């Protein structure tokens, strides 16, 4: 089956920032993303778990599949939002079906 | 003094407080007891809806008096003003950075609705009436403190972000909308509306509050465990001194505007309590450099249990003393 | 006419309707108020169980009369037939494609159990009795409309998938099984069973309904915001005309088979209401080319609020008028 | 004998049992009816809190008698001892490996709190009083069986892991902490505390139990479907014989220590029931080589429904016969 | 530690299609998969969020680790289900422990 | 934007083992991880779904981004925990922003 080269970007970010991130991505020309819930994690700012939260706390994972040539614009946009916050950004080489969607 | 302890004693052996203690102990002992996030959120929606609705019905029954506007005004003044006092205290008592101090200050200007609900329950148990619109005062006190804190940071040259978008988010955050909305529904439908749904929002209220406080205990306990060593003794002292300071100011304002005994106690509780829902989320956006485990631990791990156990009885005793004097 | 408005007026100031309005406004104002998915699903399970159980108890108490079978038959006829009318109306009033029109038509042949529950509550508030087995009629009306819609698509040469597996899924979907199952349990255990659990399924019912409608308001409001511009004026008009057409047919059938006033109103409500739970899921599988935001917005964003606020009082007034005539 | 069947008959047409049956049938028919995990967990927290609290209140009301300590002791003996009997039976009746047999044995030494709750409800329905502290006996019986099972495995040379960390986890698992904690709160606050929250923990209890058993039925049904062919006839026979053996031993011990009729029945039910919450999680850590679908299917798919429908009435009849003799 | 070459396929698909997809995968010889919940997302058919759903709506992410030689069969099976529906399919090169499991 | 080479390790493991795994990872020098909920899945030990669970059952997915040179230590640690249990481990080449975090 015909596949097309793409990048898979995964951004783990604080839930209160979610909408700001997706807005920034959309402005950077990203045509789609998927948001996954996160149960807990650990990093430089310590351990946390969704159970230990009240209100709109915790983190989410935003996954973006994009054409390689759009990667830089996406990373710039994401970085502007993530910069001062806790969270991580990772990129993987991927392939996608139905390239017209990206 | 003995009276306060007697009061605190009866207060302490209520199922509500003991449920909180159970959660706290379970978390400190690292039990895997947890209340699912969705259930906890469902309970908090229930509590906000019920407390708002009952407040609205009370206003529709007893009518609006001039004290209402004064109380709303007092709430605004307190929420804008208390962060300034908190900030000054924090800079004196602790080594927190300006940003951290401002973030903590925002929490103490805002309110904890669960503390308010627990105080209401306690007053009801003692048959002390309070103005129904204190719920509305609670609602107006949620947000202004955030502005004061951001102003404190901006003044010191550090940038704190207050985009209009954030402003909208804060004012329309779920708790405020639900509280105010349920208040309006209660005020519109009145006693008749209450009769229709009282088997849901009145009778089981205290029981739900128990389970909710069990969860708050679990969360507070886990927070305390994880933040061991983060807080100095000065910060912990602040988290006990500040409620007392806030309550004193609330007492003064409450007497000034002529609230009933119950109303005064509730205004004291609002002043004394610290937010741990709306404000933390706003701080993550507006002051991301501030350390969340500092403000969450102080507000939820120290001030909340203090108010729940000793604070509320102290405020009641003080109000009774002042009213009697 | 004034009577309808008076009726609508009292209907509108009930906590139930106001809760829906609160949700709608909150969503339109982009508040972040949300009810967790699990809690919403829990409430809908509660409502289905309670309404089914009470229906079963009513049947066990008053016995099965010949009208029962006729009513079930009427429900089947309506659910199979209404989509054909809806499809014709849609092709006249809107520019929707055949597939989209068929998908929308399926929704209007099926039913909204929450609208049914709200109507039941309203009748109870007015002390108007209704046949307990109308719940069973509601259950049989859930699925047939889907078959009609698929037939409409197949007829037009476009392929719509109705695998036997999908058929099983539709007939055994959670809402139907729970409604019918609870009905059976109620019928078997009768008044004795009801006495055991009425503190759970009767007393708090209306209060839970308030919170559930708050959520429906939030969902409808968010849907309306996101689908701005998707719908033409013709489609919106359809979403108001179709319920009136459906209710009129329901009125005729209800009188024909000799239902009580309350029963007639409920049959009208079932005919007038549109599904937004079972049918959308089935359409995603059977007619994936149909645009979900069209049918969800019409059914949940227009018809549901219309029925809840104006529709139900209109149907009651019409039924009273026809019964009196 | 006819008496047992009459008893079982009335037992079977209760909303509680029928709700379980509905769930079982829905799952076997592959309906997509599901109760969200969070809601199910919320209900189990409610049930544990309510049953613990009421037990504590009962103790505070009637006082502690010497039988209390004896009952706790009996619970410990049963929980340590029953796995040895279960293991022996399993090795005789089935071809299960030593590890699988030990894992199953652990489940039958421990208890099912929902079976206990259902028995309590049934006794209340028949106005048969029981010692309030049987809840505490239930709590102490949760964990020891795990130790016995690990000892059985260790003895046979195969290694089973009992790290101190696992020990702590088992003893402080959520159900035990909540049950014991609520028991303590009930004992401390007594009738006064109960009065405050009885509209939450007493009145709606049976209704919540219905929905919870609906979910248990769904889970048991899905488990049975998925494990088709995994179990031999011997294993299924064990899952029915073992409860009868356990109940008989419970009966003897209960009479020996002088429990009331209700208390004896509850001790029998505890002995007869098998865990499906705490023990499976512990087994995944301590005996990962054991096959979870074996022990879950036996405990939840066979023994649980058996106890719920036939077991409890049999135990009651046996206790009444023995007490009469 | 010994690792083995594999492909990681991630399919974001509407929840009502989940069982159809996993059946198709199983028939195509896939021996395992993991299903993750999705909170929301955006694509050609617009934005959506789990909060705005009633009933069995929303999407799920199905993750499949397979031997490279089975990729084509998997993609064909997945594509047959996903084709007319909203959703995306992405493939990444991966390595797995315990090859005997795949 | 400057990115750095890393490995993305994804471990699907039984929920009761979660804390044991994260402890082992931390001891192996892993500085961060993210835990995602899992709805269901299928593998050698059959199908399961979160709906069919009572208590602390089910599985979670633990995602770890690490420097390549730490991969072996991580895999050894993970394998010791996962070994006797059901579950899978997969590794992908990735890139990350803000290398100082890993
Ligand atoms: N190395 C990592 N691998 C995977 N997730 C990470 C990693 N580091 C941090 N995270 C996630 O990002 C969150 C914030 O990380 P930090 O900003 O380092 O505190 C953590 O709670 C984790 O959920
Ligand atoms: N480029 C993308 N990256 C990640 N997820 C996507 C992307 N495009 C679409 N999706 C997901 O697939 C769903 C349906 O996409 P679509 O079919 O384009 O409407 C979206 O709601 C997202 O969850
Ligand atoms: N090939 C695979 N791809 C993705 N996930 C898998 C795969 N095999 C197993 N899993 C996951 O790991 C769990 C346990 O697998 P197993 O140990 O093979 O029973 C399954 O329920 C899935 O969630
Ligand atoms: Na305050
Ligand atoms: Na209809
Ligand atoms: Na037992």
Automatic annotation (TrEMBL), chains A, E, F:
<dbReference type="InterPro" id="IPR015867">
    <property type="entry name" value="N-reg_PII/ATP_PRibTrfase_C"/>
</dbReference>
<dbReference type="InterPro" id="IPR011322">
    <property type="entry name" value="N-reg_PII-like_a/b"/>
</dbReference>
<dbReference type="InterPro" id="IPR002187">
    <property type="entry name" value="N-reg_PII"/>
</dbReference>
<dbReference type="Pfam" id="PF00543">
    <property type="entry name" value="P-II"/>
</dbReference>
<dbReference type="GO" id="GO:0030234">
    <property type="term" value="F:enzyme regulator activity"/>
</dbReference>
<protein>
    <recommendedName>
        <fullName>Nitrogen regulatory protein P-II</fullName>
    </recommendedName>
</protein>
<dbReference type="GO" id="GO:0006808">
    <property type="term" value="P:regulation of nitrogen utilization"/>
</dbReference>
UniProtKB/TrEMBL annotation, chains B, C, D:
<feature type="transmembrane region" description="Helical">
    <location>
        <begin position="12"/>
        <end position="31"/>
    </location>
</feature>
<feature type="transmembrane region" description="Helical">
    <location>
        <begin position="68"/>
        <end position="90"/>
    </location>
</feature>
<feature type="transmembrane region" description="Helical">
    <location>
        <begin position="102"/>
        <end position="121"/>
    </location>
</feature>
<protein>
    <recommendedName>
        <fullName>Sodium-dependent bicarbonate transport family permease</fullName>
    </recommendedName>
</protein>
<keyword id="KW-1133">Transmembrane helix</keyword>
<keyword id="KW-0812">Transmembrane</keyword>
<feature type="transmembrane region" description="Helical">
    <location>
        <begin position="230"/>
        <end position="253"/>
    </location>
</feature>
<dbReference type="InterPro" id="IPR010293">
    <property type="entry name" value="Sbt_1"/>
</dbReference>
<feature type="transmembrane region" description="Helical">
    <location>
        <begin position="166"/>
        <end position="185"/>
    </location>
</feature>
<keyword id="KW-0472">Membrane</keyword>
<feature type="transmembrane region" description="Helical">
    <location>
        <begin position="43"/>
        <end position="62"/>
    </location>
</feature>
<feature type="transmembrane region" description="Helical">
    <location>
        <begin position="197"/>
        <end position="218"/>
    </location>
</feature>
<feature type="transmembrane region" description="Helical">
    <location>
        <begin position="133"/>
        <end position="154"/>
    </location>
</feature>
<feature type="transmembrane region" description="Helical">
    <location>
        <begin position="294"/>
        <end position="318"/>
    </location>
</feature>
<feature type="transmembrane region" description="Helical">
    <location>
        <begin position="259"/>
        <end position="282"/>
    </location>
</feature>
<dbReference type="Pfam" id="PF05982">
    <property type="entry name" value="Sbt_1"/>
</dbReference>
């Amino acid at each position: 089956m015909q596949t097309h080269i793409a990048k898979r970007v995964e951004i783990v970010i604080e839930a209160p920032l979610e909408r700001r991130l997706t807005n920034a991505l959309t402005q950077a020309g990203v045509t789609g993303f998927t948001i996954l819930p996160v149960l807990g994690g650990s990093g430089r700012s310590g351990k946390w778990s969704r159970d230990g939260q009240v209100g709109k706390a915790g983190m989410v994972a935003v996954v973006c599949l994009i054409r390689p040539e759009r990667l830089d614009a996406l990373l710039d946009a994401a970085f502007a939002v993530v910069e001062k916050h806790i969270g991580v950004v990772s990129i993987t080489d991927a392939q996608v079906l139905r390239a017209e969607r990206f | 003094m003995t009276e306060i302890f007697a009061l605190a004693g009866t207060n302490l052996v209520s199922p509500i407080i003991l449920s909180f203690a159970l959660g706290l102990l379970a978390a400190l002992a690292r039990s895997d007891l947890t209340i699912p996030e969705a259930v906890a959120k469902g309970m908090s929606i229930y509590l906000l809806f019920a407390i708002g609705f009952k407040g609205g019905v009370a206003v529709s029954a007893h009518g609006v008096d001039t004290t209402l506007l004064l109380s709303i005004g007092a709430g605004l003044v307190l929420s804008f003003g208390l962060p300034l006092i908190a900030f000054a205290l924090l800079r004196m008592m602790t080594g927190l950075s300006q940003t951290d101090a401002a973030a903590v200050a925002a929490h103490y200007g805002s309110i904890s609705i669960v503390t308010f609900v627990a105080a209401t329950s306690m007053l009801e148990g003692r048959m002390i009436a309070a103005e129904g619109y204190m719920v509305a005062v609670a609602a107006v006190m949620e947000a202004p403190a955030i502005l004061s804190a951001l102003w404190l940071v901006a003044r010191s040259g550090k940038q704190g972000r207050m985009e209009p978008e954030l402003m909208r988010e804060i004012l329309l955050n779920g708790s405020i909308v639900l509280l105010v909305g349920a208040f309006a529904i209660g005020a519109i439908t009145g006693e008749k509306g209450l009769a229709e749904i009282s088997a849901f929002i009145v009778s089981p209220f205290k029981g739900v509050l128990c389970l909710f406080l069990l969860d708050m205990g679990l969360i507070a306990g886990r927070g305390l465990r994880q933040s061991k060593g983060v807080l100095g003794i000065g910060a912990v002292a602040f988290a006990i001194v500040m409620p007392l300071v806030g309550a004193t100011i609330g007492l003064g304002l409450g007497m000034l505007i002529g609230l009933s005994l119950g109303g005064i106690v509730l205004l004291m509780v609002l002043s004394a309590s610290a937010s741990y829902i709306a404000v933390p989320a706003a701080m993550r956006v507006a002051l991301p450099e501030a350390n969340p485990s500092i403000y969450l631990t102080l507000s939820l791990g120290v001030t909340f249990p203090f108010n729940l156990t000793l604070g509320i009885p102290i405020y009641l005793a003080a109000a009774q003393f002042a009213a009697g004097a």
